[in-house]
Amino acid sequence: QQSGPLITQFFPPLKNDLILRAARGEKTERVPVWLMRQAGRYLPEYNEFKKEHSAGFFDMVRTPSMACEITLQPLKRFDLDAAIIFSDILVIPQALGMGVDIQEGKGIIFDFLLETPEDLKKLNTVVDVTTELHYVMDAITLTRQQLNGRCPLFGFSGAPWTLMKYMIDGSSSAPLPKARRWLVQYPEASRQLLKLLTTKIINYLVAQVKAGAQILQVFDSSAGELGPTQFNKFALPFLREVAYSVKERLHEEQIDPVPMVVFAKDAHFALEDLAKSGYEVVSIDWTQKPAHARRLLGSQVTVQGNLDPTLLYASKEELKHAVKEMVTKFGTNRYIANLGHGVSKDVDPENVKVFVDAVHIYSEEINAT
Ligand code: CP3
């Protein structure tokens, strides 16, 4: 597989650019919709594929043909307005030399964790992520071709703070979280690690765009663990640097810019700052009130979100009602419908269909009145 800016011109023309237009603040006939974690364990075809190939999660992530097929699975069932490449935020710690596996029932297992600043020496700081993670770029190029212009393809990365969190605590819910303690006890080493991650993330996201990604999302899923002071010191500046440097690099390399989405989960206090952090879209979790979030974010960014993922367990009627309320409250401009976090593994795919269709139906209804 060849990848690089040249290949971009050979991709099939895009038939559905709703999400790109919404991200740029242009009017759309209906509200675009996709779901975080739209591919994965709640889909029987995902579980069958995994079993049939006796593949582990990262085997599938590392095999472009498999990653491509799984990325496309939800699009065969639902009328989605975006695809997201099947991969994981933990590929960056892997590229830095931290072995990670994900096993059914056991969750995330790291070979080793960062205990003290001494352990930073264990990292392969000079790694070139564009070669080390070339399989992601290949999967993106292949998927963009296979999508045949149906809808845009998301590339993504974990945010610096969230990756640091996983590299120190091993999961998002460690019994004795040490990552936050690092920020207090070892601020300099923390900054060094965050800076290292930022550099790798920028290179990685630029490579994804060159390979064919048409929109990017940065997942700061552990943002809410930080208070406002720590967030402003250790998360926001690095999120900003990611956005501005990716844009600058694309510009320097004469590649068209792509919209960027930031998802700083549970960071209520940060909305005003996030609206000015260089991202076109701010994705919010379900604990935020639509009108309040809009007010804080202002009119210069698009909002993405934020249905409570547990509503996918509700009755179809209740779910439709909640979607209608959500779309009504956010309005149909500068809005991308999504969940407030990822789909859980045991939801009924039929309810995902209800969610997606309801967004389209209600937003067209609102636009027609
Ligand atoms: O959204 C998509 O469909 C694209 C694929 C995607 C995955 N992970 C696939 C996946 C994306 C965008 C991610 C991002 C990701 N990974 C985040 C940020 C978003 C969020 O949910 O907050 C985080 C924190 C991770 C880390 C991670 N990877 C976790 C916490 C888990 C679950 C581990 C467990 O307890 O089983 C994973 C594994 C994972 N990533 C799966 C999938 C489909 C399940 C793997 C399997 O067992 O088949």
TrEMBL record:
<dbReference type="InterPro" id="IPR006361">
    <property type="entry name" value="Uroporphyrinogen_deCO2ase_HemE"/>
</dbReference>
<comment type="pathway">
    <text>Porphyrin-containing compound metabolism; protoporphyrin-IX biosynthesis; coproporphyrinogen-III from 5-aminolevulinate: step 4/4.</text>
</comment>
<keyword id="KW-0210">Decarboxylase</keyword>
<dbReference type="Pfam" id="PF01208">
    <property type="entry name" value="URO-D"/>
</dbReference>
<keyword id="KW-0627">Porphyrin biosynthesis</keyword>
<dbReference type="InterPro" id="IPR000257">
    <property type="entry name" value="Uroporphyrinogen_deCOase"/>
</dbReference>
<keyword id="KW-0456">Lyase</keyword>
<dbReference type="InterPro" id="IPR038071">
    <property type="entry name" value="UROD/MetE-like_sf"/>
</dbReference>
<feature type="domain" description="Uroporphyrinogen decarboxylase (URO-D)">
    <location>
        <begin position="32"/>
        <end position="41"/>
    </location>
</feature>
<protein>
    <recommendedName>
        <fullName>Uroporphyrinogen decarboxylase</fullName>
        <ecNumber>4.1.1.37</ecNumber>
    </recommendedName>
</protein>
<comment type="similarity">
    <text>Belongs to the uroporphyrinogen decarboxylase family.</text>
</comment>
<feature type="domain" description="Uroporphyrinogen decarboxylase (URO-D)">
    <location>
        <begin position="154"/>
        <end position="170"/>
    </location>
</feature>
